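Justification of computing resources. Each target in the renewal requires a structure prediction run like the one illustrated here; the chain below, 425 residues long, is used simply to show the kind of job we budget for.
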Amino acid sequence: MNTQDRMPHRHDIELLRFTTCGSVDDGKSTLIGRLLLDTKNILDDQYASIQSTSTQKGFADVDLSLLTDGLKAEREQGITIDVAYRYFTTPKRKFIIADTPGHIQYTRNMVTGASTANLALILIDARKGMVEQTCRHAFIASLLRIPHVVVCINKMDLVDYSQDVYEKIVDDFSMFASRLDVQDVQFIPVSAKFGDNVVTRSHHMDWYEGTTLMFHLENVHISGDLNHIDCRFPVQYVVRPQQDEHHDYRGYAGKIAGGVFRQGDKVMVLPSGFTSRISKIDSFDGEIMEGFAPMSVTMLLEDALDISRGDMIVRENNSPQVGQDIDLMICWLNDKKMEQGNRYVLRHTTREVRCMVKDVRYKIDINTLRRIEDDAIFGMNDIGRIQLRTTSPLFFDSYRRNRNTGSVILVDESTNETVGAGMIL
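Resulting structure tokens:
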């Protein structure tokens, strides 16, 4: 084998999804701009444009936040009001960034941006320390089971790169996080404006012995975050080509939500309970011997079974839970209130059923993490525990076990708006 054969193809490079969150004006957009600039992922004309805009605004330095605050309203107000997605690559990894809003009223956008993230980047202004939104975003990161959290203490240049300020914030956050379900937390002191410890090490903070942010993003271990034990394949589409030469082809297309499927494996189809064996697995690149999460594939079975969208292919001896009474933590995303007895459409993997709010257990005070049991009405951005009753069974795992099969969204039938995002307990 020659050297060229051993080099990875670009599509084989690992993808890391991360979300940035924090309070208003903590420098999230500037940090992303700095990452893009210092990793050479900005075109010359893009940089010239933000240079020109910065000069027009009377700024002494280039405002890197303009790279992500793309909406006209964002630039006028100087805040991020929507989730801005950015993509960049380095020789080691590909990245998708979700730059989420800092205002309390846009917490729902943070939930959206964080729902698929491998890592949460929580920014704290070194001058302000821990604030309400820091607690809120840390709690949501814990609730969404984001495997890795990086706390960037930003604007260290404005506190004279003080080690004492940094360590005080580390202690405060660690004390709060000890009450959450957060496994991997790293702390990095940075100055997004000047690039300290973002891509290159800072000579202003010799006391800091950790890695730069970019080094951590490129090297944090994420391959073990997916569930490769429980085989889950929600059927999205039944493939039946009309051409004569493929008249007997019947495949089931979808995205593997967990586990590893191999040709010859014995599988079971839910809800029917019928069993068969996998005869073939097709992918975009052709036939493959095995498929695993999060690959999109088409499976063919040895037997002609009645399978349609919303069914799930699993292992016979490793089935998900099946039920109609669903306990979950819900983040309410809509102005229209939610209370016991309300009815919604529930979407779970590729399955859609109607449901009713059977019980409202409690809401959570984000600042104190105290349960509020005497308030059964949920408003925008409220988070708490409820129980739903569905019109037909769901095939689910707990969110802790599998984020794909343990998450649901609620949709208002009259407006078709997504009104809630839930994590099954």
